[in-house]
Amino acid sequence: MNKWARLWRMKFKTKGKKKVGKAFHRQIKWRRMLLAALFWVALTVFFAISLMPETVNVVVGKPAPGPIKAPKEFIDWPTTTELKKQAANQVADKYSLDARVSEEILTEIDNIFVDIGRVREEYVDILDEEVAQEVLAEEKLLAISSVIPFTLEDETLLGLYEVEDSEISRVRRDLALFLRVNLEEGIKESALEGYKKRIADEIRALDYSEEIEVLAIGLIDNYLRANLFYDSQATLQAKQVAMNAVEPVKFVKDQTIISDGSIVTEDDIIRLKDAGLLRDTKDMTTTAAAALIALLIVVLIGAYLYYFHRKDFENENRLLLVGLIIVGVLFIAKALLPISGYLLPVAAGTMLLAILLDARIAVFVGGVLGVSIGLFTGMEFRYAFVALVGGTVGAFSVVQVGQRSDLMRAGLHVAGANIAAILIVNLASGAGTLYQFDAWRDILIGISNGLLSAVLAIGILPFLESAFGIITSVKLLELSNPNHPLLKRLMLEAPGTYHHSIMVANLAESGAEASKANSLLARVGSYYHDVGKIKRPYFFVENQLSGDNPHDKLSPNLSALIVTSHVKDGLELAKEYGLPKEIQAFIPEHHGTTKTGYFYQKATEENGKESVLEENFCYDGPVPLSKETAIVMLADGAEAAVRSLSRPTPGRIEGTVRKLIQDRLEAGQLDRSDLTLKDLDSIAKAFTRVLTGIVHSRVEYPQQLVEEMERRQGTHEQRIQSEPEQGSLDSGDGKSGGENSSGAPEGGRA
């Protein structure tokens, strides 16, 4: 009946949990979006401040209040525009040759000669005696004047009848040649008269008859016209080409725009606006650019975490940590930029992220920070390169950090990387060599960068560990110090439990290494997994030095309550001493929901199985939720189980270890630990190797002592065999004051 009741309760709890889980998931999603929005706003503010230079107050016609220097490289448009105008003015006007005009002129003149030849042929056969001379002359005059469209003297017109055909053919040919040559050169309207005069002079120089000479010059005067015309489009194109060929005049960073006391001109105002030193509408452009840059950074980091570090992406605390470190490093860098761009401590951020989260996240964020450095330093590649190299080396240098002092060693590594990066950019850009003071100054700043990064990381790390509840290897090593107050109490007040914890830690570390879990976390968790026994140490067998067992005088229910309460007591002590949550998890999870088998069996024997509630003899759990807590559960049981063996040969040790692991697996204690069957096999081999090295050696005792030890061991084995088989499956602090998960007394003492 109790079983069915539990099933119903679990069913309703599951439904309720599903509803609560969906609401919680929606809440988590909105919180992540809120964090992303806050991160975006912070970055937008930073880049808006960084990209927007300081403004100056000047008035046209008044002296400048001081030397004003360029905050970045920009084009001097007033000077560049003047140079472009000069280049355009030097371009000559462009003309286009109209070939149709040339052909028309040649055709028209040639037609005149054709008509003259036709008229001459008409009158060549007329006899003088048949027609009066006056009438004939009049007819000839009318005929020849009708084909020549310009006025000539009568004598010239009549003389054309007397000219030889050969002379007319010759002038026709020469005139066409002269015209074609000059027309091919192109004749502008302004030069037309000059061309007419030149061709007429050439005709006169050829010794033609007066009539032919007058005719040819008349044809030139009346028919020659311009064939080369102004081309506005070609002229504009030529001017544009000339203007484009002018290289823009630029102000480089830190170049003086206006000298101290110089009168400010309109051109100076234009230059100051282009430099961003005067307030205008460009402020909105800069803000928009800052917002887009910030959005890109948020999206890139979010996508990287989502696809490659999903657990960190789903943890709001870790998202907030990443955002704070990025924003903090950028604002510190902005404050240090006036000193030198080589002093920006990007490595401090990457070291913190590598220690607190993951080295791969640190390297990616270091790249983002390097690009950001390049943006707000005025696109200075050298500063971005040094920041990127130093940040990457800083992330790698703290992967194996063991204590806080190792961070100074990492700082020296960053300093060395900075030196190399600075030398590379200086040599590549020709900015300086080792023979110049500036090069040594930059190197010293690079060394200071590494040391400053280490100091910042050392100073900030404890606060971030505490604020975000993140346990680092540095923190774990501090917790593993035997002088820790809680460990010291455990050693003094429950020495047997302390020794047992040391043995479990050795096993857990080897098992974690074999299964690729966090071996340092497993070891430190083992140290503290049983600290609750400090409250009532003598109720646990490993601390019972006198042989008296207080459980002999208690009921099984009360004994089970006392034994299981060491979990609650341990959690209270852990909170009192400020142990991280990751370490606190080992206290309840190393028992899971197992049962104190001995006391349960004793209760059933005394009261009957029907009248005993099994739940009263079980630990509250939860079952192990991580590889490390599951490994400690197995190590805790394996250490005690092997200690109870009479003849701990390697084969029996391995069989015992594998049986214990199988029991825990079948009981569902490892279902949520992420341990695979391959991991469990590796853990079993590691446990066997360590336990064999611990218990297989024996010191040669005198024969009498050997017999006495064998007699006592035989008595103990009889007690073990008299227990129910369930004892090998149950966990708890059972028989004779605390039996562990193997059925042997807690702490591994026989």
Q: What would your notes on this structure say?
A:
The structure is a single chain. The radius of gyration is 52 Å and the shape is elongated. The chain starts with a helix and ends in a 28-residue tail after the last helix. It is an all-alpha fold. Residues 1-18, 697-701 and 715-750 have low confidence and may be disordered. It has helices spanning 2-51, 77-89, 99-122, 133-147, 154-162, 165-185, 192-204, 210-223, 232-244, 266-274, 282-308, 310-313, 316-336, 346-356, 359-376, 381-397, 406-429, 437-468, 473-479, 485-493, 495-514, 519-528, 556-576, 581-584, 586-589, 597-607, 627-643, 650-666, 677-695, 703-722, and strands spanning 68-69, 74-75, 95-97, 228-230, 250-251, 256-258. The chain is 66% helix and 2% strand. The protein has 3 domains: 2-51 and 283-470, no CATH class; 95-230, no CATH class; 477-728, Hypothetical protein af1432 (Orthogonal Bundle), CATH 1.10.3210. The strands form 3 sheets. A two-stranded antiparallel ribbon has the order 1-6. Strands 2-5 form a two-stranded antiparallel ribbon. Strands 3-4 form a two-stranded antiparallel sheet. Helix 13 runs parallel beside helix 15.
